[in-house]
Write a structure and sequence with these properties.
The complex is a heterodimer of chains A (448) and B (283).
Chain A (H helix, E strand, L loop, with lengths): L1 H24 L6 H18 L16 E2 L8 E12 L3 E12 L11 E9 L4 E14 L2 E15 L7 H11 L6 E15 L2 E14 L24 E13 L5 E10 L9 E10 L1 E3 L3 E14 L7 E3 L12 E3 L1 E11 L3 H4 L11 E14 L6 E2 L11 E11 L8 E10 L7 E7 L13
Antiparallel strand pairs in A: 2-3, 3-4, 4-5, 5-6, 6-7, 7-8, 8-9, 9-10, 10-11, 11-13, 12-13, 13-16, 14-15, 16-17, 17-18, 17-19, 19-20, 20-21
Chain B lengths: L1 H14 L36 H17 L3 E12 L8 E13 L3 E11 L23 H4 L10 E11 L2 E10 L8 E8 L4 E9 L8 E14 L2 E17 L3 E15 L17
Antiparallel strand pairs in B: 1-2, 1-10, 2-3, 4-5, 5-6, 6-7, 7-8, 8-9, 9-10
Classes of the chains: A mainly beta (448), B mainly beta (283).
């Protein structure tokens, strides 16, 4: 009878003895009054969190299980993953990617970086795609430089300002709704990117042989007719191009602006001679805590050789009532005004819903124009630096927004219904896109 | 209830003296002085009150100074994942990870893992929940002052919620909320600032919507506490309660995550050799 009691007492004493140092480890605040004030708040926290807030049991902590000092400073981590892609010019594309990276390198920190080798077979044109890509963060004054180097053969979009790769795959594979225009790119591309709080800058270089592609796969899972059966031909030739980009979050103003400039020159060994400039600005105005008003504007201008791979495209993210790449030219102007609700729409409407599905609503109006040489028809729409009054097209629409870290930080899944406005306006168009709230910006500084 | 009230009332009536003359109380009597009056004249304070901008600037400087005063640290960190209890089952520690961490400027870190406990590991066929953390070299404790760093000032709107006089300290409670309404996952919160050092001593963070839908349904509460060790304010506890949208094996829907930092030794002059990898050929 007495033995279990003694054992229990001994165990309790041992537990108390081991628990005591843990309590003693909590350093007392130097000022009794302040310490007492903080302890009072901490006691309330203890009561709320219970077991999670309990002190550490230090019994058995005298043995080191793993010591980071015994690990090598650099560790090579390898990974192999299968790849699959589908679009109407390549058809099924099967392949795989082998990645090698510094296993001890934290994201965003300098190290050996990451090397990825990809090899894939495009069934439609019976060609092999692939290449090597190296990315790393290089230490630089006041931060780091993001290095991105690629060499190989790949399928690119003619619209270089808007890339919805994942959604294009789904549209092409499931419904045949993919309206992107494609070209083949062989060669090298590299960039250095530096972000420093309110500003971000990038320099880039590419030396690519561009060649046109034709549609090779006209099927899709739902066996629907392709929205865009053909594919706009790129101008074949070598493009040696230098690119610069700069963006800025303005101090004391909710304004973000950016400018991108690309230049290709025969003096650099390029087959094409052009200057391409794109500028955009976006305001983020809070209306109380109820809604955000977001005016955005983008302007683009191409001078020199009007090659399709350097043209500006309209549709999809830029004009939601149009299919992606529906209109194009050597000049582009887009202005959009959008009102986005701040609260959960379902909560506002008092509809039963889960907190895991917060939806916001938006109404928007857009006006846009392209001018100059149309790469689809070759016709020249009047306008030099600005479109004619009659060339503007408008739309109004509504969107449902769902923001999730599943897509990428800050990205929003948007379902929209947009109605064209004007004399030759058609019916409404539904679309799904993944974009950022300030979606006319391409190169905004990170919010962090 | 009514019957007992009536009975009590009757007893009180019965106990009350029936005569008109009241007997004088035998003990001391409390008397109120109503003949003397005093009035303190208002004092007009001409000194300007410290503005919110000035407070924010001082917090920024205070946090920078706090960081600059430390060259090395040694502490014990405990990360714990707890399934919160409900009517059917008690709370349970699912995973606990304890490590001793040595840090030295600019970016040297050594981590010695002392405990790696998972509740499901010893039971065959049941999945365990593993907490794995990596210590980083900096001592600026961004998790405490993220909303008050100079590069983030433009992202948040601040206001003074209150002041507490605690001994010789004035503690400001400052609220912060995101300026932009475009990011529904941005946090808001309250910090307690000790104006003697202009250092954040406590923080509570919340979210209007789930910060990671659709996996997380809600983050109910995040509390971050600092403690003073040898005159240095350092991170002491981080506690979070969150709810998943679908129950996870072993974890369920609601869980607590905590990180506790104890047993600090600051500026003890940790040698560089402590961080060097062991020489090859030696065991």
């Amino acid at each position: 009878m007495s033995r279990p009691v003694l054992l229990s007492a001994a165990l309790a004493a041992a537990l108390l003895l081991t628990a005591t140092p843990a309590r003693a480890q909590v350093p007392a605040a130097p000022d009794t009054a302040l310490g007492g004030f903080l302890r009072e708040l901490a006691d309330s926290t203890d009561g709320y969190f219970g077991l999670a807030a309990a002190p550490t049991d230090t019994a058995g902590l005298d043995t080191v299980l793993v010591d980071s000092a015994s690990r090598p400073a650099r560790r090579l981590a390898a990974g192999l993953a299968p790849d699959y892609d589908f679009n109407r010019v390549d058809g099924n594309t099967w392949g795989g990617t082998l990645t090698l990276r510094d296993g001890n390198q934290e994201p965003g920190e300098p190290g050996f970086g990451r090397l990825a080798g990809q090899l894939a077979r495009a069934v439609g044109p019976r060609t092999t795609l692939g290449g090597a890509r190296y990315t790393n963060r290089l230490p630089a004054a006041g931060g780091s430089l993001a290095l991105d180097l690629w060499a190989g053969r790949r399928t690119d979009r003619l619209d270089r300002d808007d890339d919805e790769r994942a959604l294009d795959f789904l549209r092409a594979f499931v419904t045949g709704d993919d309206a992107s225009q494609y070209l083949r790119a062989d060669g090298f591309a590299g960039s250095l990117d530096h972000g420093h709080g309110v500003w971000r800058a990038r320099v880039a270089w590419r030396d690519l042989w561009h060649s046109p592609l034709a549609t090779t796969a006209s099927w899709n899972l739902l066996d629907r007719r392709l929205v865009t059966p053909g594919n706009l031909a790129a101008a074949p030739g070598r493009t040696r191009e230098a690119g610069y980009a700069l963006s800025l979050r303005w101090p004391w103003l909710p304004l973000v602006t950016e400018v991108e400039y690309q230049t290709a020159s025969r003096r650099l060994g390029s087959d094409f001679e052009y200057r391409r400039t794109r500028a955009a600005a976006a305001l983020d105005l809070s209306l109380g805590r109820v809604a955000a008003l977001v005016p955005q504007f983008a302007y683009g201008r191409l001078t020199g050789d009007a090659v399709p791979q350097a043209a500006f495209y309209l549709g999809g993210g830029t004009m939601r009532s149009l299919h992606r790449d529906a209109r194009a030219g050597t000049g582009l102007a887009v202005a959009r005004l959008e009102l986005v609700t701040a609260g959960d729409l379902l909560e506002t409407l008092r509809l039963p819903h889960s907190g895991a599905l917060p939806l916001r609503g938006a109404v928007f109006g857009t006006t846009s124009a392209v001018w100059g040489r149309d790469p689809y028809t070759g016709a020249v729409v009047r306008g030099d630096d600005w479109p004619g009054r009659r060339d503007w097209r408008g739309e109004v629409g509504v969107s449902l927004l769902f923001q999730s870290a599943l897509f990428s930080p800050g990205s929003t899944l948007r379902t929209s219904c947009a109605w064209p406005v004007g004399p030759d306006a058609g019916g409404p168009r539904w679309s799904v896109s993944v974009s950022h709230p300030l979606d006319l910006l391409r190169f905004a500084p990170d919010t962090d | 209830m009514a019957a007992s009230t009536i009975a009590l009332f009757a007893a009180v009536l019965a106990a009350a003296p029936s005569g008109t003359a009241r007997p004088l109380p035998s003990g001391p009597t409390l008397a109120a002085e109503d003949t003397l009056h005093t009035e303190v004249p208002p004092v007009l304070v001409r000194a300007p009150r410290v503005t919110l901008d000035e407070i924010l600037a001082r917090v920024e400087r205070g946090e920078r100074r706090r960081d600059s005063l430390m060259t090395d640290q040694r502490f014990l960190v405990t990360a714990r994942l707890v399934r919160t209890g409900d009517a059917r089952r008690a709370p349970e520690v699912l995973s606990e990870w304890v490590a001793r961490v040595f840090r030295k400027r600019p970016d040297r870190v050594r981590t010695q893992i002392l405990r790696d406990y998972q509740a499901g590991r010893e039971e065959k066929g049941r999945p365990g929940v593993k907490v794995q953390l990596k210590a980083r070299g900096g001592m600026d404790e961004e998790i405490v002052n993220f909303a008050f760093r100079p590069e983030r000032r433009r992202q948040f709107r601040y206001r003074i919620l209150g002041r507490d006089l605690v001994g010789g300290h004035v503690i400001y409670r400052l609220g912060f909320e995101p300026r932009s309404l475009l990011d529904p996952t941005a946090p808001h919160g309250v910090v307690w600032v000790d104006t003697n050092d202009f250092v954040i001593v406590r923080q509570e963070v919340g979210f209007d919507h789930s910060p990671a839908p659709p996996l997380l349904e809600d983050v109910q509460r995040i509390v971050i506490e600092r403690t003073n060790v040898d005159g240095h304010w350092v991170l002491h506890r981080l506690l979070m309660r969150a709810e998943m949208s679908v129950p996870l094996p072993r974890v369920g829907r609601s869980f607590d995550f905590s990180m506790r930092f104890d047993d600090y030794a600051i500026n003890t002059g940790l040698p560089d050799s402590l961080f060097a990898p062991p020489a090859k050929g030696k065991s």
